[in-house]
Recover the amino acids of this structure.
C-alpha cells in the first residue's frame, strides 16, 4: 500500500497536490514549482538479517513528498521510521525499489556522490544528535558550511542568527557537554539548518524539549519552509509535532498509510 497512492507515484503526486486545505494551514501560496515532487519512492523494500533470514522492515513503500511540504511519519517504536529517513537521506540503500530526489535516482549513486548529495542538499537531526564534543556550539554549526566550502562572513552571521532563533544566544562558545539535553537538541536543530538544506530529515527533533521550546523549533521549521522553500520529513511519536505538519503518514507492519489531518 502507498502513502499517497496504492499503485503509482505520478498519480500520487497529483493526489497530494490537490490537497488545498493543507497548503492553507501553512500560509503558503503553493505555486506550481513548490507543488512539484521533491522525493519519490517506488516499491522501496528494506530488511535486516535476523536468525539466518531477513526481517523485512519496509515492505514495498510508494511515497511522494512535494517541494516545501512538511510530512510527519508516525508509527510504533521499531516500525521503521528512522530506517525510512536513512534511506531518503542516502545513509543506506534499499534492497529493492527506487528513491528519486528532484529527478535523480539516489540508489544509483556511489558512496562519494551520496556523501556530496547529503552535504549539499540535506540537513539531519539524528536522535543521538551527533554533535562533535571537541567543538564549541558555534563551531558545530560552522562545520556543515566548512564541509561545503562555503564558510564565509554571511555563513557566520546566519549561524549566529539561527542560534538566536532557537534561544541559544550567548552560548556560542560553550562545549556541548556543558549544555542541557534540550540545549544540545537545539544546537543539532540549528546545525541541520545552517547551510540552507533543500530537505530537513528530523528524527524526534523535539524529544528533549519542553512544550514552549518545541513550538519554537516547529515554528522555525515552518518559517524556513516559507523563507527558503525547505521541505521537511519528521519522524515522531509526538502528536504536537504531527499536528504541525502539512501531512501525516503512519508506518505499521512495513507499510505506509496516510493519516487524516488533525
Ligand atoms: N542497521 C540495522 N541492523 C539491523 N537491524 C536494524 C538496523 N537498523 C534498524 N534495524 C531494525 O529495524 C527496525 C526498525 O528500526 P527503526 O529504528 O527504523 O524504527 P523506528 O520506527 O525509528 O523506532 P523508534 O520509534 O523506536 O525510534 C528495528 O527492529 C531495528 O532493530
Amino acid at each position: 500500500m502507498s502513502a499517497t497512492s496504492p499503485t503509482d507515484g505520478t498519480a500520487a503526486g497529483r493526489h497530494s497536490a490537490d490537497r488545498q486545505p493543507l497548503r492553507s494551514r501553512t500560509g503558503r501560496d503553493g505555486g506550481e514549482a513548490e507543488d512539484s515532487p521533491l522525493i519519490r519512492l517506488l516499491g522501496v523494500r528494506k530488511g535486516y538479517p535476523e536468525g539466518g533470514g531477513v526481517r523485512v522492515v519496509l515492505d514495498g513503500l510508494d511515497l511522494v513528498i512535494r517541494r516545501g511540504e512538511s510530512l510527519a511519519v508516525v508509527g510504533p517504536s521499531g516500525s521503521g521510521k528512522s530506517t525510512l529517513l536513512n534511506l531518503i537521506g542516502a545513509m543506506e540503500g534499499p534492497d529493492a525499489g527506487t528513491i528519486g530526489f528532484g529527478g535523480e535516482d539516489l540508489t544509483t549513486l556511489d558512496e562519494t556522490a551520496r556523501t556530496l548529495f547529503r552535504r549539499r542538499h540535506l540537513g539531519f537531526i539524528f536522535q543521538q544528535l551527533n554533535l562533535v564534543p571537541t567543538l564549541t556550539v558555534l563551531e558545530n554549526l560552522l562545520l556543515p558550511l566548512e564541509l561545503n566550502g562555503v564558510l564565509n562572513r554571511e555563513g557566520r552571521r546566519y549561524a549566529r542568527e539561527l542560534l538566536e532563533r532557537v534561544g541559544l544566544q550567548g552560548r556560542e562558545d560553550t562545549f556541548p557537554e556543558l549544555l542541557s539535553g534540550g540545549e544540545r537538541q537545539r544546537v543539532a536543530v540549528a546545525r541541520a539548518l545552517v547551510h540552507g538544506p533543500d530537505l530537513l530529515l528530523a528524527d524526534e527533533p523535539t524529544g528533549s524539549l519542553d512544550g514552549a521550546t518545541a513550538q519554537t523549533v516547529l515554528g522555525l521549521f515552518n518559517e524556513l519552509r516559507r523563507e527558503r522553500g525547505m521541505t521537511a520529513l519528521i519522524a515522531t511519536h509526538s502528536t504536537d509535532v504531527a499536528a504541525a505538519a502539512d501531512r501525516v503518514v503512519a508506518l505499521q507492519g512495513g507499510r505506509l498509510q496516510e493519516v487524516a489531518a488533525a
